Hints:
Blueprint: H1 13-16, H2 27-32, H3 38-47, H4 51-60, E1 63-64, E2 79-80, E3 86-91, H5 100-112, E4 117-120, H6 127-137, E5 142-144, H7 146-153, H8 162-175, E6 179-182, H9 204-216, H10 221-224, H11 226-236, E7 239-242, H12 257-275, E8 280-284, H13 290-303, E9 309-312, H14 324-338, E10 342-344, H15 357-377, H16 385-395, H17 399-405, H18 409-417, H19 435-438, H20 440-452, H21 458-467, E11 473-476, E12 482-485
Parallel strand pairs: 3-4, 3-10, 4-5, 5-6, 6-7, 7-8, 8-9, 9-10
Antiparallel strand pairs: 1-2, 11-12
Helix pairs in contact: 3-4, 5-6, 5-15, 7-8, 8-11, 13-14, 14-15, 16-17, 17-18
The structure holds iron/sulfur cluster.
Amino acid sequence: MANTRTPANDVRSAWVAPRRGRACVTQMYEARKGVITEEMTFVAKRERLAPELVRAEVARGRMIIPANINHVELEPMAIGIASSCKVNANIGNSALGSTLEEEVAKLDICLKYGADSVMDLSTGKRIREVREALLRASPVPIGTVPIYEAIERVKEPLDLTWHDFLDVIEAQAKQGVDYMTLHAGVLWELIPLTKDRLTGIVSRGGSLMAQWMMYHGKQNPLYAHFDDVLDVCARYDVAISLGDGLRPGCLADASDAAQFGELRVLGELTKRAWERDVQVMIEGPGHVPMDQIEDNVKKQMEWCHEAPFYVLGPLVTDVGAGYDHITSAIGAAMAGWYGTAMLCYVTPKEHLGLPNADDVRNGLIAYKIAAHAADVARHRKGARERDDQLSRARYRFDWNEQFRLSLDPERAREFHDATLDHEHFKTAEFCSMCGPKFCSMRISHDVEKLAAAGTPTPTALLSTEQREGGAGCITESGSGVVQLARPEREPPPPAE
Ligand code: SF4
């Protein structure tokens, strides 16, 4: 399959030109100097926030704008509690499947269904070329996990040296990667805490780091050389996504000493990054029972100084294989409601295989629902407008408008038309769910018409009764019309 996609527009070349060549070009650095960058203004418009609020949040570290100066095709977005809840979609090839063209096609699907960010998790062939194609085609931030490419470059994972690893980080930064997952908090001393776990270390990056440390008997090089990483990130404005390499891989391991031990380290690293004006977000679990989600979010906010939280799921049960976009979207909606800033989608193929295009669509829509539900629950500005518009269209039987406002218009149309496909039914006052006779919304329209025609309504009668001091109650008459049963009244007292 040939890649016929047109490249994304150049949005930022002129914006970043004056910043080039400086030792620190980050949005955080500018924000702390009091500068409102073009990226901040762009974000403020998108989010319906004041530009000064965006600047203040970025300066404080509670919001990040992942925007590498070499990703000029980027249309900036923000991740933080003050902005809408975001959704990330993971794509990328593996040694067992997918081509460059298929990955670019997956990016198109992600963009079509509203991904706010995309992570290229390629571990197979042509990692650099896949990433280049994605960056040049993507108006959304692209994130990576550099250890995957670092491992792919060496014959054996244990052969990896720190210099090889840093080379990969620098090369990806130069290419334009907007944020990188770095498992810098998986410390040597935390690894024994995983020994009694049901599923050990389930993060790919976390398990590779642990294996390297155990074999070489050395501390995590990302932690030991964190300042070198910060130099690179400051030079290109790469946001660090501090990875949760010790996240729980099952409910039994949730909220254990290893997970929370690592979270404490991530808090320490957050402060170190902020001292160098490097933007940071914190990755979170994983598999967490519903009753522990709020506590997980609160601990992250407290221990990591309110740096944006970015969670994978979490899955709220382990038994949903084949449906883990649902088990995890439940947890994601809750996490978003409690204040998580970005949700990393999970597809139905989770734990089972490499997702295809249809899995990407299903996972993404599940997460768009979760993020939107969180925005509504947090009363974010304008969050419910689309719901209300769709509900109005639904109530007036404007089917085409209902489809248009749905998160997946094609799926909504397809399901409707499966039983009523003629154009005539696009204005029909029913669908095949209840049929014309039992369509409650159509009946409700009739009730409104009766009310408009002056027919006494229970409400009107009740209010009359109440005005007169009577209690009143509602019954149905033989004809099916709702009538007010008037209570027996005390006879007036006899005249003196
Ligand atoms: S038939 Fe039932 S499901 Fe369909 S529009 Fe009417 S009330 Fe809604």
